[in-house]
Each structure stands twice: as structure tokens, then as C-alpha cells.
């Protein structure tokens, strides 16, 4: 298997696990039973990657063709459900793991799109879709307005990570180093948005 393919697969597995943790943690916080927690963990973990694969013609999607993603999602869900008190003690666990999953999937999605010959603007868009898809479904299933539709820096962070991959690929830089840089930048921007209040501009209501 080619190194680029191995890198994407490795990142996909990491992203699957951390997104599953974020979904499971939110399910526990919302008082879901074990089945609900596992379903939310799985859907959060695979939706973005499945959407990306369908759009670029990589069918059946890896998450469906292999049992590994399901096993990782179930393991993450069981881990969070069993040790929920430990996760509750972590500061904002859902948001942290969501940021990590966002960065990993944005980078992996962009790299996979490039490997399939997608032009760079659409590769970046597919990277964003990979990153935000699972979180959007998770938020909808837990009756929240998806984070990406609010003023928080979310999709923009995914875009930044995706553009790092695009630029690194165009410059012929080592894929592993480029992927790491993209993930770090995306996670950094997302966490700064959370802890420093970085936000995109919104329309403020004015009295007539």
C-alpha cells in the first residue's frame, strides 16, 4: 500500500476514534442509554468520511467496507459510557475531542481527495465536509444548532488545515509533516476560538 494511502487510512482511524469519543460524551451528557450513546458515537465518527467517499467515488466507503471503524466507534462509546465520571472531570471533553476530530478528518479528507485527482479548491471543500459532517449530525441528533452554523470558528479552522495540505502537496513536501502541520493548525484555531472567544463577525440587531 502506498505511503499516502496508509497516511490517510491512519488519520481516518484516529479521527474515527476521537469523533466517536466526542459523540459518546455528548450522548452521556444528554442522558442517553447505552444504545443511544453507541449510535451517536458511530454516526459522529463516520458520517463525514462516508460523505467524502461517496462524493469522490470511493465506494463502498471505507467506514462501510471495513469493520475497523465500527469497532473503534463502539470501543470509544463503551469507554466513555463506562468511565463517564472520568470524562466529566476533563474540561470540556466534548469540545476538545471534537476539535481533534475536526483537524484529523479535515486533513485526511483533503489528502484523499487529492489522491483521487480532485482539483485543489474542491479537495479543500471535501476536507471541510469530512471534518464538519459528523459534528453536524451529532448536534442535530441532540437537538442543538450545529456548531458550524454559529459564529464559532469551526469550518474556517477546517479550511485552514485543508489549505495546509493543498499547499504542502503543491510544494512537494513530505505528506506526514504536512498532515501534522494541518492538524495542529486546525486544532489550534478551534481551541483558541473556544478559550479565547475568537469568533466570526455576525450581524448585530439595531433598534429602528
Give structural notes.
This protein has 9 helices and no strands. With 208 residues, it is mostly helical. It has one domain.
Q: From the structure provided, what is the oligomeric state, counting identical versus distinct chains?
A: single chain
Helix content range of the residues, please? over 70%
The first-to-last residue Cα distance is 64 Å
Could you say how many structural domains there are in total?
Answer: 1
Shape: globular
| Cα-atom radius of gyration | 17 Å
H/E series, N to C?
A: HHHHHHHHH
Residue runs with pLDDT of under 50 for 5 or more positions: none
Question: Summed up, what is this model?
Answer:
The protein has 208 residues and is mostly helical. The protein is 76% helix and 0% strand. It is globular, with a radius of gyration of 17 Å.
